[in-house]
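PROTEIN DESIGN WORKSHEET
SECTION A - STRUCTURE
LENGTH: 249
TOKENS:
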């Protein structure tokens, strides 16, 4: 049997994202989320997690959106204290890796301090998968020993890497997505399917071009058709907290 984790990225981004993710969990197939510790909706997201204990929550380590948790960085931010919006390889080699390590630790620790049980770690724009940041990620895994989302462009010696399916995005978002990708999904014993359900509020619409598409994701992820399709294809829904006991990695 294949088990999938339908993980909603960007929890904590803003109120619209938070409410959309909770709706997709309570009324649909989202089993897991990952929280952004430095975003405006963080505090609300923490309260929602405490009200929805069955929703697994990881940390969405962030380097390319809004502001860092720490205010001491010299290389990670622009002149206004904001993260750079796109992390190219050319930009990545300019970063102080110690600053990056301290920032990612601060983001994880902020979630721990909020009394949330962290199920895994992943990252915004998949920055943890960049080869330039391998030394930082290895130190993070050694310190926290948490499962991590896969998709690496480098080899990593770690036994808690969960395969990523990241194609439910952009032009691929449609009611037929899961049917069209069923062979890919069934290759795995367990896999993380990335998603971005949300309701659109002012902050979301002004801060990203990927906003209206999130409402379409929400519609699909809460549809009866998708729930029945997964049942008919013997695909179970789990989150990262389940896999160490039930499924293996």
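SECTION B - SEQUENCE
RESIDUE ASSIGNMENT:
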């Amino acid at each position: 049997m294949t088990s999938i984790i339908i993980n909603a990225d960007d929890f904590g981004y803003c109120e619209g994202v938070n409410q959309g993710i909770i709706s997709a969990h309570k009324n649909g197939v989202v089993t897991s989320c990952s929280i952004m510790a430095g975003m405006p909706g963080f505090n609300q997201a923490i309260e929602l997690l405490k009200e929805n204990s069955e929703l697994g929550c990881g940390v969405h380590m962030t380097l390319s959106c809004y502001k860092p948790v720490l205010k001491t960085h010299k290389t990670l931010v622009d002149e206004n204290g904001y993260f750079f919006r796109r992390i190219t390889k050319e930009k990545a080699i300019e970063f102080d890796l110690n600053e990056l390590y301290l920032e990612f630790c601060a983001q994880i620790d902020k979630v721990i301090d909020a009394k949330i049980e962290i199920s895994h770690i992943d990252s915004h724009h998949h920055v943890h998968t960049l080869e330039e940041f391998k030394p930082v990620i290895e130190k993070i895994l050694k310190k926290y020993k948490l499962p991590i989302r896969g998709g690496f462009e480098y080899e990593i010696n770690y036994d808690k890497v969960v395969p990523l399916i990241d194609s439910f995005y952009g032009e691929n978002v449609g009611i037929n997505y899961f049917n069209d990708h069923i062979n890919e999904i069934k290759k795995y014993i367990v896999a993380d399917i990335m998603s971005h359900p949300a309701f659109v509020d002012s902050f979301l619409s002004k801060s990203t071009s990927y906003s209206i598409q999130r409402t379409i994701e929400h519609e699909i992820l809460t549809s009866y058709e998708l729930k029945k399709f997964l049942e008919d294809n013997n695909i179970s829904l789990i989150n990262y907290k389940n896999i160490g006991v039930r499924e293996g990695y």
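SECTION C - NOTES
The longest strand covers residues 2-11.
The CA atoms of residues 36 and 185 lie 27 Å apart.
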